[in-house]
Each structure stands twice: as structure tokens, then as C-alpha cells.
Amino acid sequence: MGPGSGLTSSIGGGPSHHSVGGGGCAKYGACTNQLVSLEVVLPTGEIIETGSQANIHSKFPFNRFGNGPDLAALFCGDNGIFGVKTKVSLQVFPKPEYAGYKTFLMPRNSLEISAQMMSEIRQKGIDVYDLMYIMDLLVRFGTQEKFLPLWDDLKKKRGMIFYTIEANSEKELDEKIRQLDKIMVENKSEELGPEISDGNIAKWHYTEQGHWQFYHNLWGIFPTIQPLTAECFSPIIQYPSILDDIDQWDFEHQEDMQKIFEITKIRCIAGSGPILLIDGTNVEITCGFTSFWSFYNGEAHKIIDEINIKLWKSLLKRVTEHGVQWYMMGDYMSRVMVDIGAYSEEYYNVMKSNKKTLDPKMILSRGKFNFWGEK
Ligand SMILES: Cc1cc2nc3c(=O)[nH]c(=O)nc-3n(C[C@H](O)[C@H](O)[C@H](O)COP(=O)(O)OP(=O)(O)OC[C@H]3O[C@@H](n4cnc5c(N)ncnc54)[C@H](O)[C@@H]3O)c2cc1C
Q1: Which atom number of ligand 1 is nearest to the Cα of residue 14?
Q2: Which tens digits make up the pLDDT trace of 280-308?
Q3: Which residues, other chains included, contact 273 with Cβ-Cβ below 8 Å and sequence gap of 6+?
Q4: What proportion of the chain, given as a percentage, has pLDDT over 90?
Q5: What average pLDDT does the segment 336-359 reach?
Q6: Ligand 1 atom index nearest CA of 329
């Protein structure tokens, strides 16, 4: 399950925050869904193995659940606070012989329609490998900035949706494609040609493993921009209203953004990256706002940093209030959850007491989740 972080991402980092990002995440879910067992060095120096490996006689990892509670779960999505993962066993799957990949231009107001399509696909039980919705603004902006040159010649620069699907026989593939295309066409989407040069980004994503590069390129469009984002999971049915609310938030914070505009002459923008279907009826949302580094045009502008941190927190709070589940939390988002009181007291206390048990001297990943009570 490749994240979009370009050419680097570590094995330990994946399960530590449920990495997910194309490369089969609609079919297989996040990296942790495939986890079989872990070897973890605890902050006390003790080493534990989980699942089948908790039995010292087991010759190799083969199952996650059993031999007691699912201790691996404690370290999945822990953002590195409970121990250092030194071995990770993951399930691997043979690549089926057949695959289909198509990209569709969507009608206007494609946000709600994309959610409708994803729901239909799930209701019909079609096991898409990947499915991504790229909203109108990103298509327009991406082509304008040459991030998506394959869509340069499109007459209508509107939202896009693509799917990839795998099968073990031609017959199976044809049938799955027939069902998927029916959903696309009934929702008034037009198929682009089959080749990458026709705009078929699905083909690039699948056959050339484009998913590794996608976000990396997106966040790197201008050298001076600073993407202030975080990544969360949400049910399909909720993401249209979350994205609408991010637009509303953007509107409400124009005054602060104008102060940055006066320095950079380019407006900051709030929004979301492409929406990825993940396992079950959930999607991954990368959201935030794109601003600038405070060192701009050869000068340091402290005010940019101040506004960035204020607005970033404000936006993350707003999105959290939609009930999303943050997964790539790291230092900042883990603190925001505590600062804005989004954890129930009971949940936070259990997390904190686990931290005290496993890391009594609080030496590992200091600062995350505000366990010291500091801001
Ligand atoms: C441009 C860009 C795009 C990205 N796109 C995506 C995406 O689409 N989807 C996605 O899920 N992520 C994405 N990421 C985030 C991240 O790169 C990936 O999730 C990646 O899989 C994590 O590996 P890493 O080496 O980057 O981890 P790091 O950032 O180094 O670590 C991630 C977390 O895990 C902890 N950690 C790392 N190694 C260990 C270990 N051995 N034991 C215990 N804790 C550990 C760290 O303390 C940290 O909290 C993106 C990042 C970038 C820069």
C-alpha cells in the first residue's frame, strides 16, 4: 500500500500511522490491515513479539490473533509513542493476471456524485483495487501548473474519477468492468481514452505505480509553498459536507489569508487533495491549507508563521468536529486533538496510563499527545 511520499517511506512508519494511499487501498485497506506480527523494542529495553510469535516455539509469523489479546493493535497507529518496531510481518498477495483501469470526466458539481458512485460500488460488492476522485479545482489547477500535463488538451477541465480493478480471468475482468462502467455512465461520466496520453491517469497509477509520486508532486508544485495538512478517514457519506465546510472555513478566514497575500501576491488556499476510497465504506481525506514558508523572496516574515500555525489549528479543529478519524497524526495533530478536547477523558487517560507503563521515563517520541501537559 504505497503512500504518496515519493521515493522514501519506511516499513516502521507505515503501521505506526496506518499508512494508506493508493496501490490497492480500496481493496486491501491501510497497511495495518495486512499486519501479521510485530517485533517491538520497548522504551525499557525489553523486546516483545506479537500474535503467533508470542509463542516462543512458533517458527515463523503466520497469524495476528491468538495467544492472548491483540497486542500488535496497541502499536498500530501509535505514531511511535509506545516502542520501536524492529520487525514487521505483513501479508502479501499474488498479483492477479488481469487488470483494468479507466478514467472518467465527470459532470458539473461532481462532489456529491463521486460519493454516490463510491457508495454504489460498495453496495454492489465490487472489489475495486483503487478508486480516486479528483475534484474540479485540482484538475484545473493541476493542468494550469503542469502538474497534470496529461490533461492539458482536455476541453472541459472538470472533476475526474478513476478506477483500477484486478481479476483472475478475462471473463471475470470483463464482467467487473461492465458493472463499474454502468455506474460511471449512469452518473453521467464520460470515459477518456485507454492510454496515458489520452488522459487515463488510472493506467499511470497502476502500470507505472504512479501512486508513489502523486502527492509528492502535488505538494511540491511551487518550491515556496508550505502544505499545512493532515490526513483522516471519513465515511463516504460524510466527505461532501466536510469538503463544503472547508470551503466555508476558507471564506471565513479571508482576512488572515489576505495578510499573507500582501507579502506573497499569491493567495493561500484551503481544501483537500484527491479523495481515495479505502476498505469498507470509508475514504481517505488529505486536507488543510496551502500557505508559504515565512522566508519569502529573500526576507523573513514572522507574521506568516504566526498566521500559518493559527489557521492550521483552526482548520484541523473544524474538520475534527465532523467526527473524522485522524491517522497520520505525528507531533502536531496529536497535540491538536488534546488541545481542542476532542478525546474523551477516559480514552485519553487509558492512552496515557499505557504510555506510563510502557515508557515510565517518557523517553520515546516526546511531546506527542501532550502527555507532559505542555502546550
Ligand atoms: C509528500 C508526502 C505524501 C504522503 N502521502 C501519504 C499518503 O498518501 N498516505 C499516507 O498514509 N501517508 C502519506 N505520507 C506520510 C508518510 O510518508 C507515509 O505514511 C509513510 O508510509 C510513513 O513512513 P515514513 O518513513 O515517512 O514515516 P515517518 O514519517 O518517519 O514516521 C511516521 C510515524 O511513525 C513513527 N515511526 C517510524 N518508524 C518507526 C518504527 N520503526 N517504530 C516505531 N515508530 C516508528 C514515527 O515516529 C512517526 O510518528 C506522505 C508523506 C509525504 C511527505
Answers
A1: 21
A2: 999 999 999 899 999 998 999 999 999 99
A3: 138, 215, 218, 229, 285, 286, 287
A4: 80
A5: 96
A6: 49
**With contact defined as beta carbons under 8 Å apart, do 277 and 136 qualify?**
no
> What is the whole-number distance in angstroms between the Cα of residue 17 and the centre of ligand 1?
7
pLDDT tens, residue by residue, 249-273: 999 999 999 999 999 999 898 999 8
Query: Does the CB atom of residue 328 touch ligand 1 within 6 A?
Result: yes
- Tell me: pLDDT of 44 over 80: yes
Ligand 1 site, residue 20, Cβ cutoff 6 A = yes
pTM exceeds 0.70, yes or no: yes
Range 13-90: architecture per CATH: 2-Layer Sandwich (3.30)
Does domain 222-331 fall under CATH 2.60.120? My reply is no
- Measured in Å, residue 19 CA sits from the centre of ligand 1 at 7
- In angstroms, the CA 59 to CA 19 distance is 28
**Please, which residues have CB within 8 angstroms of residue 45's CB and are 6 or more apart in sequence?**
none
CB 2 near ligand 1, within 6 Å: no
Pocket test for ligand 1, best of 1, 11, 17 (most atoms within 8 A of CB): 17
Residue 57 CA to ligand 1 center (angstroms) comes to: 33
Output the residue whose Cα is nearest ligand 1's atom 36.
13
CB of 21 within 6 A of ligand 1: the answer is yes
Q: Where are the domains of the chain?
A: 13-90, 98-215, 222-331
User: Do you know the residue count of the chain?
Assistant: 375
Give the pLDDT band (50/70/90) at residue 373: low
Give the span between the Cα atoms of 132 and 198, in whole angstroms.
Answer: 18
What is the topology classification, in CATH, of domain 98-215?
Alpha-Beta Plaits (3.30.70)
